[in-house]
Specification:
About 50% of the residues lie in helices and about 5% in strands. It is mostly helical and about 525 residues long. The chain has three domains: about 10-135, 3-Layer(aba) Sandwich (Rossmann fold); about 145-205 and about 255-330, Serine Threonine Protein Phosphatase 5, Tetratricopeptide repeat, CATH 1.25.40; about 350-515, Orthogonal Bundle (DNA Cyclobutane Dipyrimidine Photolyase, subunit A, domain 3), CATH 1.10.579. Helix 12 crosses helix 17. The longest helix has 25 residues, at about 305-330.
Length: about 525
């Protein structure tokens, strides 16, 4: 006996875990009497890489809360829980099962945030011979076609050019044709550090205690994913639209004022500092970027936050977030295979466990284990920098990023990691590799003060692995990067080293690579 048929529907609307927006284009023309929604927690998505327990709980809880919201609005919602005995374990199989049960005239979804998921939906529709309507994702402020028009014919895809276009197009922080404050960005004012005294008392992001739905999800994750990385004891993420709005108000009121000045700083035991922690709810579409930008600009107009903080925050959302999504859909699927520096090492196991003597890595990974969160400089200039200097395969770094961060979705992770962090795309996103020695981390954090390694040393027994691997990175990539005009100073500094020092650095780097990659996780 097969499963019973459900009520025949006109349209079956597919809603994925990163599309939790009641104003989504997927619901345009929705008829509560004739249409239905399908939401799915499937094993294939939860296990194609080992995923942080907080990431899994965050997605499942937010999805279940959103399904409840739709039901309260009168929508018919077919929700497939992870532990449903009839769950076939993949989007393609579940779409097939529910299409056979509800016999829709048409499947509808907005463009998923993962090319792989889009292919699964298209394959299901094709095998079912069912019409598929893939709609633009209006959550974003630019469309895939908009970015294609911007990008085609350009030799390079500079964020700054795109960002200025977006500012003009949407009349954001503009005074006529000129940028508010007289500059397009205020990066020079956004590199503050706290010094030996450390940061003042900073109100942490608003915490949300798990309700009954979230507690049920936490128990599910602990039961079904006991071997997954991370811990759930500290789960306090916003999981509804209303909670996301509360988190936004909290950030604007308590941390936006100083966000810009200290956005690049890193301090032990202060995972959030002045950062917003809003990327998760933005990336699941629980929060509209227009609302976020409007509230930040209002704080500037009300003289509650300076221009350097507000512009820096707006640039992350209007500029960088839209830019990386555009690059993703412009370059996928070949983008995932790019490896311009021919890096070939696996990601070390301690990037999941924090079992390393490098204090900066240990602090950041422990923070990840506890919170599934790190701010952009910890990602780019500590953990990403380490993988770049070591020579880890760019796509492996991307898989690790998806594994450990609550806010990681393919469209945002792949360009950020493979392109910006690892220079795997050879300069499509970044004009140079973000390569630095341990001295950068020493300057921007307090991590080095309690470390057994010396960031100034590259050869001695107490040499910082970052510094050793930095000089080795320059040496082994000299021919690939020597013509890059932004790396002239770095290569001139390399040229000043004696042949003996270079040889000793190479030998020590080779030993490090062997030791650090001896144990792997994926």
């Amino acid at each position: 006996m097969g499963e019973k048929y459900e009520k025949k529907v006109r349209n079956l609307v597919l809603v994925f875990g990163d599309q939790l927006d009641a104003g989504s284009a997927a619901f345009d023309g929705f008829d509560t009497a004739a249409d239905a929604v399908l939401m799915m927690e499937v094993k294939e998505e939860a296990t194609y890489i080992p995923q942080h327990k907080i990431r899994l709980a965050f997605f499942f809880s937010a999805m279940r809360h959103f399904a409840g919201e739709l039901t309260d609005r009168g929508y018919v919602v077919h929700y497939v829980a992870f532990d449903d005995p009839n769950n076939r374990g993949s989007f393609e199989a579940e779409i097939t099962r529910w299409t056979n049960k509800t016999r829709p005239q048409r499947l509808i979804c907005v463009r998923p945030g993962d090319f792989r998921v889009l292919e699964s939906v298209q394959a299901a529709a094709k095998s079912l011979n069912c019409e598929l309507d893939v709609r633009p994702d209006t959550h974003f402020m630019s469309t895939v076609n908009d970015f294609k028009s911007f990008a085609e014919g350009r030799k390079s895809l500079l964020l700054e050019t795109f960002y200025r276009k977006m500012r003009r197009d949407h009349d954001i922080l503009m005074k006529g044709k000129d940028p508010v404050g007289g500059n397009w960005n205020f990066d020079k004012d956004n590199r503050g550090v706290f010094g030996k005294k450390g940061p003042p008392k900073i109100k942490p992001p608003r915490s949300f205690q798990p309700d009954q739905t979230t507690q049920k999800v936490i128990k599910l994750v602990e039961r079904e994913f006991s071997d997954s990385p991370g811990r759930l004891e500290n789960f306090d993420y916003p999981v509804t639209h209303e909670q996301a709005l509360t988190a936004l108000r909290d950030f604007v009121k308590y941390r936006l004022e100083h966000f810009g000045t200290y956005q690049d700083a890193m301090v032990s035991d202060f995972p959030y500092l002045y950062h917003s922690r809003l990327s998760c709810v933005l990336n699941l579409h629980l929060l509209d970027p227009r609302k976020v930008i409007d509230d930040a600009i209002r704080a500037y107009r009300d003289k509650k936050a300076p221009i350097n903080s507000v512009e820096g925050f707006v640039r992350q959302i209007l500029g960088w977030r839209e830019f990386v999504r555009g690059v993703y859909w412009f370059k996928i699927p070949e983008y995932a295979e790019m490896n311009a520096l021919q890096a070939d090492l696996p990601m070390p196991a301690f990037m999941w466990t924090a079992e390393t003597e490098m204090n900066c890595i240990r602090i950041c990974i422990r923070q990840l284990i506890d919170t599934a969160y790190a701010h952009h400089i910890q990602r780019l200039m500590v953990m990403g920098l380490f993988a770049l200097l070591l020579g880890v395969r760019p796509y492996d770094v991307h898989r690790w990023h998806l594994s450990m961060y609550a806010d990681a979705i393919d469209w945002v992770s792949l360009p950020n990691v493979l392109g910006m962090s690892q220079y795997g795309d050879g300069g499509i996103i970044g004009t140079k590799p973000y390569a630095a020695s341990g001295s950068y981390i020493n300057k921007m954090s307090d991590y080095c003060s309690d470390c057994i390694f010396d960031p100034k040393e590259s050869i001695k027994e107490n040499a910082c692995p970052f510094t050793t691997l930095y000089w080795d990175f320059l040496s082994r990539n000299h021919n690939r990067l020597k013509k890059n005009p932004r790396m002239g100073l770095q290569f001139r500094n390399l040229d000043r080293k004696s042949d003996a020092d270079r040889d000793n650095i190479r030998k020590k780097a080779d030993r490090l690579k062997s030791e650090l990659t001896r144990e792997t996780y994926l």
